[in-house]
Automatic annotation (TrEMBL), chain A:
A biological-process GO annotation: phosphorelay signal transduction system
Pfam families hit by this protein: Response_reg (PF00072)
Biased composition (Polar residues): 135-150
Protein name: Two-component response regulator ARR18-like
Main location (coarse class): nucleus
UniProtKB/TrEMBL annotation, chain B:
Species annotation: Olea europaea subsp. europaea
The keyword Cytoplasm appears for this protein: yes
Identification of the protein by name: Histidine-containing phosphotransfer protein
Domains: entry comment: Histidine-containing phosphotransfer domain (HPt) contains an active histidine that mediates the phosphotransfer.
Functional description taken from the UniProt entry: Functions as a two-component phosphorelay mediators between cytokinin sensor histidine kinases and response regulators (B-type ARRs). Plays an important role in propagating cytokinin signal transduction.
One GO location term (cellular component): cytosol
Record keywords, A-Z: Cytokinin signaling pathway, Cytoplasm, Nucleus, Two-component regulatory system
Chief location bin: cytoplasm
GO molecular function: histidine phosphotransfer kinase activity; protein histidine kinase binding
Subcellular localization(s) per the UniProt record: Cytoplasm, Cytosol; Nucleus
Length: 505, 162
């Protein structure tokens, strides 16, 4: 090959990924960059072909999680044989894994849906001599990778920053020349650094500045500039981590119910657009729903009316809405009140009430004590009046036995809430203390945006009106049980609200 | 149908795509996928997506099988299935499916079987929706290509010179 003239065009890449879809994408992406690609789905296969043609490949691009041997092991094995540059790609980009990859000698670590722009830069790695002076645990290395800057870039930037920091300090320029040698931030050193920061944080009056940290750390080899630049990097890293934590990385310490919040809200909230359903029978893509999916996405589930399911989409019935809207709140209350005695609150009563599902993103799968909803379960609601739904307009396919949740606009939900006290009953499901909203503990709220919070409060406000009405009622525990059975999601949410301090009746 | 203008079909396709983006079903990775399609691989998108469907259905079957097994305890295996699913979903830009996978994986890491079951239901639901919509998209694409290829012979006006 004419490696000399145009090495980029004939860069020979070995791509390894067990996931065919990803591999396909990767291969086409690489081909579009003009590389010559050999694709393998198994790490062992890849290793074998690499051993056979030791000098053929210029670079290896490998996935991290693979069934036979994982990317790290593969990397180690490749390192034993040759020093061919290896790029790792993975969906998992939490810092530990990235560091682990670099520790094993990876040239770079890319997040999984790999961008073509990233692939275009591959030849740079192939021509660069691998640098092994990085100490594995150095925080510098980690940052280099996370920001996917080449070490050179990074050093340059560091110097600039150092200049900025030391502008006030006159001595530095002379000192700097002596300290050009690279300081490696080992784990111990970094720990000391963190301790120093912590110590400074405790003392509110002292600012966290490099000089003080240096004093506390008491390391002869370190200079103020070293600490200064490290501090900058550390802060940057913190900010970055905070950002990514919010979006993607799952905090494993938290329990299930908090987990998908960020992801779900990110994917579902489209602020300021009311969701309105229109069925578009001719066009095929029935609902242009969407709209203001409330951050606490509320899904209205219509049950019964199986024929409308087969029709797949059903426009909201304006008359119904109008009707509900026109009911005065007090009127409704008066009418409904007599119907409330606890003896009526059993299944029969509930069976005639409208079902509402309050779907909060985070609370979906919380409680293991509730049986999973099976598609069969849904059948039990059959005689319920229809509130207006449209599941995703889909033709019955392989998995269509699951009804799609459908989102409604906030206004609509409020109308429903305001006009249907029994709904609330069902939502509440168990006697509520007057300070119901107080049971929303702050931790649960933190994941929602401001918009979400205000909506939640609104929703809670509505609930509270009714709950006050209901407090007087005594529910038997049997009834409670029935309510819970009615709606798993709801009951799960409600269970969340019930704190041990509220005695079950 | 052939007479149906290619332009109109294109507009329709764009609307559908916009809807899917709006709903968060797809993300920009799907556009990347479309950009990878060129003359050398004219059917790249639908090929990849079909592979994706094939793989995903296999994975969903496996996941369901695992969960329905009475003496099930192999959450690790489930995790690896989910990683696969996540990887491929994020590759084609199926954002919502991927998000459900994230939740699912979290449930499996906690060995929360009920949570897993719920997540599976939701996953199937999202997957089904995605599949239907993408099929629809490809169908319109096919029609559009057909429509674009149609050439009507110029209309011959009867010559009636006065």
């Amino acid at each position: 090959m004419d490696n000399n003239n145009n090495f980029q065009s004939s860069l020979r890449v070995l791509a390894v990924d067990d996931n065919i879809v990803c591999l396909e994408m990767l291969v086409v992406g690489l081909q579009q960059c003009g590389y010559e690609v050999t694709a393998k789905t198994g790490a062992l296969e890849a290793l074998a072909i690499l051993k056979e043609n030791k000098d053929y490949f210029d670079i290896v691009v490998t996935d991290v999680t693979m069934p036979d041997i994982d990317g790290f092991k593969l990397l180690e094995l490749i390192r034993l044989e040759t020093d061919i540059p290896v790029i790792m790609i993975s969906t998992n980009i939490d810092p530990q894994t990235v560091v682990k990859g670099v520790k094993h000698g990876a040239q770079d670590y890319l997040a999984k849906p790999v961008k073509v722009e990233d692939l275009r830069k591959l030849w740079e790695y192939a021509t660069k001599k691998p640098e092994y002076d990085h100490t594995p645990s150095s925080i510098e290395t980690r940052e280099t990778v996370v920001q996917s800057l080449s070490p050179e870039d990074y050093k340059e930037r560091d110097m600039e920053k150092e200049d900025e920091i030391s502008r006030s300090d006159q001595i530095t320029s002379s000192r700097k020349k002596h300290t050009k040698k690279r300081i490696t931030w080992t784990r111990q050193l970094h720990k000391k650094f963190l301790d120093a920061i912590q110590q400074l944080q405790v003392d509110l009056h002292s600012k966290i500045i490099p000089t003080k940290i240096l004093e506390i750390m008491d390391e002869p080899d370190l200079t103020r500039e070293n600490v200064g630049s490290h501090l900058q990097k550390y802060r940057k890293m913190l900010a970055k981590q905070r950002k990514t934590l919010g979006q993607d990385i799952i905090d494993t310490n938290r329990t299930m119910e908090h987990l998908p919040d960020a992801d779900f809200t990110a994917s579902t909230i489209i602020p300021g657009r009311p969701i309105i359903t229109r069925s578009n029978s001719g066009g095929g893509y029935g609902i242009s729903n969407a709209g203001q999916m409330n951050p606490i996405s509320r899904y209205l589930m219509k049950t019964g009316m199986s024929d409308s399911f087969s029709a797949n989409t059903k426009p909201l019935n304006n008359n119904d809405l109008q009707f509900q809207h026109n009911l005065l709140h007090s009127q409704v209350m008066n009418q409904m009140q007599p119907a409330m005695p606890s003896s009526l609150l059993g299944n029969d009563y509930m069976a005639n009430s409208t079902q509402i599902r309050c779907f909060m993103p985070g609370y979906r799968y919380l409680n293991s004590s509730f049986p999973p909803p099976t598609s069969g379960n849904l059948g039990q609601h059959h005689s319920h009046p229809v509130l207006g739904i449209a599941p995703y307009s889909q033709s019955p396919g392989a998995f269509c036995n699951v009804y799609s949740p459908y989102q409604i606009s906030k206004g609509f939900l409020n109308q429903v809430l305001n006009s249907q006290p029994d709904l609330l009953l069902e939502q509440v499901g168990c006697p509520l203390p007057g300070n119901f909203s107080g049971h929303f503990d702050a931790a649960n709220m933190t994941n929602f945006g401001d918009e979400a919070k205000s909506e939640m409060n609104e929703c809670l406000g509505n609930m509270q009106i009714f709950s006050n009405e209901l407090i007087g009622e005594n529910f038997s525990s049997d009834n409670q049980h029935d309510f819970f059975k009615q709606d798993d999601d709801l009951s799960a949410i409600l269970n969340e609200f019930r704190t041990p301090s509220v005695p079950p009746l | 149908m052939l007479g149906f203008g290619a332009e109109r079909l294109r507009a329709y396709m764009n609307r559908l795509l916009a809807l899917l983006f709006h709903q968060g079903v797809l993300d920009e990775q799907f556009l990347q996928l479309q950009q990878l399609q060129d003359e050398s691989s004219p059917n790249f998108v639908s090929e990849v997506v079909n592979i994706y469907f094939h793989e995903s259905e296999k994975l969903l079957r496996n996941l369901r099988g695992l969960l329905l097994d009475r003496e099930f305890s192999d959450f690790k295996k489930m995790g690896s299935h989910l990683n696969q699913f996540m990887g491929s979903s994020s590759s084609i830009g199926a954002q919502r499916v991927r998000n459900v996978c994230v939740a699912f994986r979290a449930a499996s890491e906690q060995s929360n079987r009920a949570g897993c079951m719920r997540a599976l239901e939701l996953l199937e639901c999202e997957y089904c929706y995605l599949k239907n919509k993408l099929h629809e998209l490809f169908q319109i694409e096919q029609q559009r290509i057909l429509a674009a290829a149609v050439r009507y012979p110029p209309v011959q006006h009867p010559i009636n010179n006065p």
